[in-house]
Amino acid sequence: MKRPQENGEKQGDDKDDHIYDGHDHDHDHEHDHEEGPPKPARPKGKKAGPPTEEDLQKQLTVLEIARNRIEAFGREADLLASAMRDHGRATGTLTAVSVMGRKQPSEILVPIGAGVFIFAKPVFTNKVLMNIGNGITAEYPIDDALEKLTKALKDIEEKEKKVVAELERLEASAEALTREVQAMYEEMQRAKKA
Predict the structure, then answer these.
(1) Which of 25, 59, 64, 106 makes a 20 to 30 Å CA pair with 50?
(2) Phi, psi at residue 107, to the nearest 5°?
(3) pTM for this prediction
(4) CA 144, 145, 147, 152: dihedral to nearest 10 degrees?
């Protein structure tokens, strides 16, 4: 049985309560949680003894919050994975166009959506239009666009690794908390029968 919390101690784990939004923020921590999952604790001022219904309800609330965070980090990981695929496709296409040079093929297939492609005759150019953010598009030479895409892809991969690592940590924490809640419930049932 865990010891009751002393006055002044924090309850639960309020580290990293942010949702990773794909942007770099100045955090002193770099998701380095070596101390393991948070341990549920009884409310302040409680004496040792079997947990109460109120204790159990509080821990269930903490568990629900943890599961909501897992869901949010899961969505963020999916968005980053999708961005990685988009950047990978764009990089591959620009690389092929750059290698093609002025040797133009007679026709190419252009995807227009819903699995439909049209045939088109390309006109080689060394410039592309690229979204630079906030709906603004700028013209870049292919080599410059490739450099920007490659850097952006690397940044997205790094962010995705951090989000996945945090997601795994949260899942482990939620599993431990689920076991603790189950143990509290079983202890309450034993105390009722005694």
Answers:
(1) 64
(2) -145, 150
(3) 0.61
(4) 150
pLDDT of 7-39, one tens digit each? 444 444 444 444 434 444 444 444 444 444 444
Give the containing element (helix H, strand E) for 116: strand 116-120
Q: How many angstroms from the chain centroid is the CA of residue 169? A: 11
The string of DSSP codes covering 117-163 is: EEEE-----SEEEEEEETTEEEEEEHHHHHHHHHHHHHHHHHHHHHH
The torsion angles phi and psi of 110, rounded to 5 degrees, stand at -115, 120
Report helix, strand and coil shares of the chain as percent, to nearest 5. Answer: 50, 10, 35
HSE, CB side, 13 Å, CA atoms: give it for residue 132: 10
Q: How many CB atoms lie within 10 A of CB 77?
A: 19
Measure the CA angle with vertex 37, ends 33 and 40; round to 5°: 140
Q: What are φ and ψ of residue 139, in 5° steps?
A: -95, 130
